[in-house]
Structures are given as structure tokens and as C-alpha cells.
Amino acid sequence: MAGNVYDFTEGGRDLAVLLGGKGANLAEMTRLGLPVPPGFIVSTEACRAFLATGAEPEGMSQEVSRHLAAIESEAGRRLGQPDDPLLVSVRSGARFSMPGMMETVLDIGLNDDSVLGLAKVSGNERFAWDSYRRLVQMYGNTVMGVDGALFDRIMTRLKELRGAPDDLHLDAADLAELVEAYKQLIHEETGHYFPQSPAEQLRRAILGVFGSWNGERARLYRRREHIPDDLGTAVTVQRMVYGNLGPDSGSGVAFTRDPATGRPGLYGDYLPNAQGEDVVAGIRNTVPLAELEQLDPRSYRQLRDHMGTLERHYRDLCDIEFTIERGTLWMLQTRVGKRTAEAAFTIAAELADEGLITPREGLARLNGDGLARLMFPRFNTSTTGDPLAHGIPASPGAAVGTAVFDSAEAIRRAASGEKVVLVREETTPDDLPGMVAAQAVLTSRGGKTSHAAVVARGMGKVCVCGAEELSVDTEARRFTTREGTVVQQGSVISVDGSAGAVYAGAVPLVDSAVMRYLETGERSAGVVDAVAGALQLADEVRRLEVRANADTPEDAARARRFGAQGIGLCRTEHMFLGERRKLVEEMILARDDAAGDRALDALLPLQRQDFAGILEAMDGLPVTIRLLDPPLHEFLPDHTDLAVRIAAAEARGEQPNPRDAELLAAVRRMHEDNPMLGLRGVRLGLVVPGLVAMQVRAIAEAVVERRRAGGSPEAEIMVPLVADVTELRLVREEVEQALGEVSDESGVPVHCPVGTMIELPRAVLTAGRIAEEAEFFSFGTNDLTQTTWGFSRDDVEAAFFSAYLDKGVFAASPFETIDREGVGRLVGIAVAEGRAARPDLKIGVCGEHGGDPTSVHFFHATGLDYVSCSPFRVPIARLEAGRAAGAGETSSDTR
Fold it and tell me: Is the pLDDT of residue 894 over 60?
């Protein structure tokens, strides 16, 4: 196809890129023989050319005139003909549905002469003037740039003057007066008159709709929905049909199934004596679509038949707009309808059961984001006031509890059965016990990959981070909103981790039946059965394994219930918190090898116990254990707290606690300006004697314990933050020595594959050499992202990510969805070079991206063997891995 303009008879739904969604679907309905008013489509290519140059493409006007002439010939009337005018609508139509984001102009062709002709030929003077006022208002706003609120004010004043509750109570004379007031407003605001030429109206309306592609609300919507900015919109020009000609006319919106639940049937709204925009705008109350059967039985039967035709043809839920003009039904639009997550799963399952689609096609129509929404409790906010604050929705779900401001208080209250929300400026590893005790975590700083966010997601806790509108005072145990509302400790608050909102008081919760199924395996009819079927199919077709990030036996057991095929990341540093912290302090403060060995010897049985429990929970499945990764200073008390304690003792004339002084000296000695790039990971193992051997021995002894108990443990040892193959070689030698010693002592051969995390650009670029020493790779994409971008993940999201998203630097946070061009390319290099050196190299990912739906597809395409994510995201990763495996031959875009 070539040219700028296409007749409905020339297109179809497969040309949505060129004709836009609206135009392509109108063309498809025309091909199906449904009653569609004739029209034509100005293409997205023409729009892009106009947006690039500011001028309409060469030849476009002539093509528009030619296609308009065909409509005029069929109708036997000309555009704007004074005695019997042909009128047309001009509507936007992007490839992806953007409801209400761009502009529409109706009744093109009316002017001071043709409005009189329309009144006479229709026999309805009020209808004619109502149509004219709609044109002047839409054209003035869309094409001439007059603020729409100014038109609304004039309408409101006139209704008040006439005592009219709505526009239906304005008569023809009132509407004629309104037209004159609107035209005067346009002249006052722009210095130009409303054009009387129908040809000029049409030309400028098309260009006005083109321009609305870059309107503020359209751009904001595209950013939110990740729709590219360079697609442009098509423009549909169509002969007008009228639902406002009297009681035998009307307009409506219909769905072939309930978009909220997915149940089959006819759902929608109808508004007698109204145009379509009246239904959407809500200026009058509609009636349920079922009432149309009593108002106009013939049109209702036709509509029902057409809806059945469309659902069978599109093989999906269809969203339909229609108008009845004096008893004649016209179909004005159809598209694959948007639906809730519950409806998406239900519809996919039912259409597959009905044989309209294959099960694999049904799977392709689902997504992990929808599954996540079904897994978490939801708030019923229908009667709730405005939120206290908004933040970053870091971990989805809904939770209610009393606000507490420190970990100890959270533990104390939770132990007595009270539900609490832990509120902090930001969390640290010290807050972990309080986070475990809390129903939700709320911070005024941080982003989606801050400590609070990552840990909360891993535990399945609700979390809102970066609520900058809140001033958190942990000393006074309260927070204050920007408007001055003070919330004291003990006050009940509700945290919506899906929307990033915080409410005062207890918002009612709606339980998740899907989560009950995942926890217990108990299936039930409806959406739960649909989810179960989708996950079963995904497991059958996917290539990627799905493992979990889990640090405790409880997390491991939950992950296994959720379908995890092992543990891809067990973080040993979480095992050093609580009472064990004292032993780490002893190790750090050790003045000689003997003192250090005593501390390590005390830690060994505790670590062994941890590993044994996790290996038991994951018996027969791989458990990848990462050796100690964070800087040691994180296990020491805060520098300021120590200094204050010592200064306070001296001020009282007392001798400071010797241990405090010793700890303060250690903190100062170990201080790093940028600890994330300092003494951590493999570097700790090389400079702290015995640390690697202790951890490996604990792992090996746990393996021996499980084997003697009849288990089949599969432990893997992962060395973090490797940048050079020599680092890995040195640590591997120590690992193998410790494994050999335990094998000799126990008489049980212990072999644990040794691999590394790829989380530094240098590791990527030397992946071939590192693979000579590594039996597996696991991409730590959190650190790889921050070292590639030069971002500190704990700081940058709240600082400037919102500006970067607004300005289009990236479409989504690179910490949420893999940056394919940068970080993704590094992943591809490491995969290729690693497998070139070691063809059987097992490769996975254990960063936060392992549970991100979009990223899972990338990892599948790049050839990874598994993804690993928090236990609560395992079902999501399973679903997406199945979809990534080519589960569906076709998929409907319901964006």
C-alpha cells in the first residue's frame, strides 16, 4: 500500500501500524459486512511527516479530497451543503489504545448556513444547534487552542440562568445563543474567527488531531504505558451518524464479556438521545445495556449478533462503541478490550475451553504483572479519602497496622499479636528483625532497589519507599505530612504497595484467593482455576528454570511451594545478624589469629545449622550459596552512636566502655567513602584469614549431615564480586581444600560446584578467562547495573529518576527492567565468551531482574539456564518463562 489516505474498504486489523487501531478495526468491521458509516483513514506515516516538518505531506490534501468525494457521491450530499449537509467526524487512532488522550472533532461541515439546512432536513431544530455547538467547542479547543474550561463556564452560566439541570433542558434558542457565545470566545482568545469553510474545518481538524499526539496528557500516558513516542497517530474521517435525534436514538459502549470479572454476556452502558462522547464524559446517567432490549428490541438483537460475530472473529473480549440513529444501528468502533487481571486469566481460560483459541494462545495473552496483582491483598478504596502521601510502590500488596518507628518496638508489639507498619527514613540491615515482624515497611527515602525495597520484596512484605512528602522523626516517634498532619506511633495506617499510597486509618482489605491456592495447592472455580491452569501450561513449555532467592529454611520451603526449582541465591550475610553480630565483632576486633579463629569456630556450627535447614527444605534441588558479600563495617555499630556514647561517658567524668573505644577504632579503621566499591565480596575472602574456609566447611558439613539423614543435598558455592580470574582461582583453591578436609574427616565425598557472580564490567570483559575457573555464572544484575551506569542504587532513584523518566532518558528504571542496550549487551558478551571457554557452563541471574516480566523474556532470548527471584515472584517468573518460550502463536495487545 502506498499513499497517505486509505478507504475503509482498503484496510484491515493487520494494518494497525499504518492505519492506527481505530481505523484498522473500522476497516475490519467493514470487511465483515457490519453496519459501519463510510469513511477513510489518514495514515500514521502522514502524521509522522507532519510532526517532523510542521507541514502536511505532499499530496495529502488531494488524497483527502478524493476520498471525501467518494463519500459524498455515496451519500448524495456534499460536505457542508447548505440545504442538506454531509457532516463528518475526525478522530485520532494510535496503534495502541490511548483512550481520551488525544482529540476528536465532531460535526465537521456545519456553519451558519448549513445548520439551518440540517434543522430543516432533520425536522429537529434543537438537534441541529446542539450539533453546531459541539463542533464549535471541540474545534475551538482542539484546533484553535482555546482552554476547554472556558467553554464549560459559558455552558454552566447558561444552565444556571435557565434553571436547567443538564444540557437536555436547553432548547434550540438557548443552544443558538451558546454557539454565538462560543464563537465570540474563540475570537477573544485567538484573534481569529471560527472558520465557515467546511474544507478548512476538515483540513485543520486533521492537523489538529495530528498535533494532539504530542499533547501533554498523551505524552504522560505513553510514558506510563511504555508506548514509543515515534509511532504517531492515524486520523479517521467518517460520515456522522447521530444518537441525539430524539428518544428513538442513542449511543452506547458495550463489552462482549465483563471486563472486571471475565464472565460472558453483554455488558455496557446506553444513553438515549445522546452522542457517544456524552456516554464517556458522564454528563448524564446512563442505563445498563440490558435496558436497550426494552427500549429498542430490534437494535438490541442486532447489536447482540454483531457482538457475537466480533468476539468470534477477534477471538477475544471486544470493546464496542455504537450509535442508534432513529432506529438504525451503526457500529462506530471495536477493539480488543482492556480488562482486569482477574478477567484476563478467566477469559483466556474460557476462550480456550470454548475452542476459540489454543491454550498456548491463551497463555500468551497473560502477563506476570497481572498475576502479581492477583497474588496480593487489595484495598477497597471506594469509600476512602485522599492518601496521606504517595511514594514509590516498591513491593506490591496492601497492609494495615499501627505505625512504629524502630525495630525493637515492631518486634515487641508483633509478639503481642499487634499488626504493625515499620516507618523509617530508610532501613539498614539492623532493621531486618523489625521488617520480619511488620506487615509493611514505609520509608521517606530510597527507591525500588533500596534496602527496604529489596528485602521487603524478598519476604513478600508490602513496601512503599521514597515517600518524600513525609517528614519522619524517629526520636519523637511520629511523621508529619506536607499538609501538616501528624501521625504518632500507635496510630493505624494503611499502606498500598501496589499504588505507592499511604492512608490514615484502616482501609478494608480484600483477600487473595490466588495466594491461598499457591500456599496450599487448593484449587477452586473461577480465576484460581484459570491461574492454576496457566502456570501448569507455562511449566510444561518453558525452557528457563526458575529458582528463588532465599536465606532461611522458611523462605526456601515457601519458594518450593510456589514452584521454585532450587535456590539461585542464598545470602550468607543475613545469617550474621542478631546475636551472631557479637561474634562478627569479635572476628573483626581479633588482635591475633587465635582470637580470630575462636570467633570463626563459634560461627561455624551456627552457619552449618542454617545451611542444613535450607538444604533440607530444597532437598534434591540446587542451592547456590553466596559467600559473605557486604563490607564488614556493616556488622559494626554506627560511628556516631559510638562516638556519642564515649563522649557522654567522658562528660560525666566516667571511663568510657573499653569495648566501645575498641569498636570505634575499628569503625574508623574500616571506614570507606564508597563501601559498595570497597572491601567486600571476594576481597574479604582474600584478606580475612579463615573466613572462606569457615563458610565452606559449614556448607560441606551441612551436606554431610543431610546425606547421612538420607537426603540429596545439592549445594553450590558462589564467589561474589570477582573482577579477575586470579581472585577466583585463589578462593577456589581454599574452597577445594576445605571441601577435601571435610570429605576426609567424614568419609562422605563432598563436591560442591564453584562459580561466581558476574556483577562488574571487568568480569564481563574477561568472562572467557573466568569461565576456566568457574563451573557456573550467576549475573548479579543489581550491581552490574549500578557499576555500568555509575548509579548508586540506594540514592539515585529518589534523586533524579523521575526527571529521567519524564525526559525520556529511559522508559523504565534500569534497576526494575534490564537495560538491554547497555547492561543487557554485557550479559550477552559474558554468556558468549563464557560458553566459548566452557560449553557446559551453567548460567543464571539472581539480581532483582530475575523476577521482572520483561527481563525474563530477555534472559530467555539470551540463552540463560535459569532466573532466580524472591519466593513471592516465583509464580510470576514461571508464567513469563512459559510465555517467553513461544507459548502463544498470537497475542492480543490490551495495552
Answer: no
